[in-house]
Design brief:
CATH class of the largest domain: Alpha Beta
Number of domains: 4
Helix content: 40-55%
Strand order of the largest sheet: 2-1-3-4-5
Length: 465
């Protein structure tokens, strides 16, 4: 690796000499320029890693030289050198893109500290660039990351359906990245310059979902004080993404089916039939064929929305992708929170790999963000990982330990109780403690689930449903 290089720009020879003597001791390659004109020529022919730039110089002053440097492709960071008492000018220079400033006369340690900060930042930028390149090499599509066979199949389907107008059904557990798949399909379609309108069918109350989808006229119902355009109207010429379509009521499903068949609808309270040109992408965490058997989802709608079916694997079934995802999230959150975290220790990575991730990629992302914020070093260690990951593994190991001296009936009861406790806890965790949604996912009545929670003494600190 070449030695770090620094360009000193000052019209005073003595000032250049003094700074050079200090920095040469730290093994930097030093170049000098007596004014802005010379400096620009040096930067164009042999770009330095860092520039110290005096403000007051003949021919081309420091402020103008700074503007020209910052207009270059990949400009080096510039530290403004100013006389004591001229800090206002230096602050103005920082607003125009200078990295920092130092006032004459400066202390030797002050100069060394500011140089150290710059090169630490440059090293972090270089590491981030390397990680981005590595992530690209290993495999991914936009924000979707993975090199497992299961994810390669997903990427292949996205590529194939992107340029078409077919309806797509994305199936996968909560937190597995269904919305990211929808965004990637839209980005590859002929509609990419038109809107992508997203609607979460769970987040909208049943009484408002039709209004949200199709809009309403003023006075259509109590509280409708003005006309409102629905999601289908807003998505005209673009794409609408219906997330968690499996939670939509049968009556709304019937109206949605008509829109898919005819591309026409009326606003609530209206008589005008509106025509739209919309591509529909849907997603659900439910098994819709099972929902059809139970009479909770229309079979004709099912075949309309799943011309192509993309199944997203849960994170626990593609654990080889965890290191890639973890490093991507470390890079992202380190930049976001201005931390110097660069990687995950081997022991911490083993812990991440051994966990079953009930909340999938979203869960991993949250854990890495927490670890980045809490870490005091460049490497995330086990102590930075939330305790419940380790505790979960311990409780899982305990659950399969059986005392063969007890009766078969008692052993079976213990195994079943441990299984039920673990399964229900994971479902509650998946739905952020919402008992109603967890009960629905478990195909149980809410009251029965509440009773199970009491019987199994599941942590009552769970957020209320």
């Amino acid at each position: 690796m070449p030695k770090p290089s620094i360009l000193i720009v000052d019209d005073e020879k003595a000032a250049r000499y003094g700074m050079r003597k200090i920095l040469q001791k730290d093994n930097f390659v030093i170049t000098e320029a007596k004014d802005g004109v010379d400096a620009l020529q040096i930067i164009k022919t042999s770009p330095p890693h860092l520039v110290f730039l005096d403000i007051n110089m003949p021919q081309l002053d420091g402020m103008k030289t700074l503007e020209i440097i910052n207009a270059m492709k990949n400009p080096p960071p510039v530290i403004i050198v100013t006389a004591h008492g001229s800090e206002k000018i230096a602050v103005e220079a920082m607003k125009k893109g200078a990295y920092d400033y130092i006032a004459k006369p400066y202390e030797i340690d002050e100069l060394r500290i500011i140089v150290k900060k710059v090169f630490e930042r440059l090293a972090l930028q270089e590491e981030n660039a390397r990680l981005r390149q590595e992530i690209g090499r290993l495999g991914g599509m936009g924000e979707l990351i993975g090199h497992s066979d299961a994810m390669k199949d997903v990427f292949d389907k996205i590529d194939k359906v992107g340029s078409t107008d077919v309806t797509v059904l994305i199936q996968g557990e909560s937190g597995s990245g269904k919305e990211l798949v929808a965004r990637e399909i839209h980005k590859r379609s002929k509609r990419r310059n038109e809107p992508l309108v997203i609607m979460n069918c769970v987040a909208v109350p049943e009484t408002l979902i039709e209004s949200d989808l199709f809009g309403h006229e003023k006075g259509a119902f109590t509280g409708a004080t003005e006309k409102r355009l629905g999601k289908f109207e807003l998505a005209d010429k673009g794409t609408i993404f219906l997330d968690e379509i499996g939670d939509m009521s049968l009556s709304t499903q019937a109206k949605l089916l008509r829109v898919l068949q005819e591309q026409k609808f009326e606003r609530l309270g209206g008589t005008e039939t509106l025509a739209v040109d919309v591509r529909v992408i849907s997603a659900t965490h439910r098994d819709l064929e099972e929902e059809i058997e139970k009479g909770r989802f229309r079979e004709d709608l099912f075949y309309r929305i799943k011309v192509v079916n993309i199944k997203l694997p849960p994170l626990r079934s593609r654990k080889t992708d965890i290191p890639l995802l973890a490093n991507r999230f470390v890079q992202y959150f380190s930049e976001k929170h201005q931390k110097g975290v660069k990687s995950v220790s081997n022991e911490a990575m083993k812990l991440l790999m051994s966990y079953n991730w009930p909340g999938n990629v979203r869960h991993l992302k949250n854990v890495i963000e927490s670890a980045v914020v809490l870490s005091d070093s460049e490497i995330i260690d086990v102590k930075d990982i939330p305790e419940e990951l380790g505790a979960s593994e311990k409780s899982g190991a305990a659950a399969i330990t059986i005392d063969y001296n007890i009766s078969f009936r008692d052993a079976k009861k213990l195994v079943v109780e441990n299984f039920e406790r673990d399964f229900i806890k994971k479902k509650l965790e998946e739905f952020s403690g919402n008992v109603s949604r967890a009960a629905d996912a478990l195909d149980m009545h809410r009251q029965n689930l509440q009773q199970k929670i009491r019987e199994l003494r599941i942590n009552k600190q769970e957020p209320p449903g």
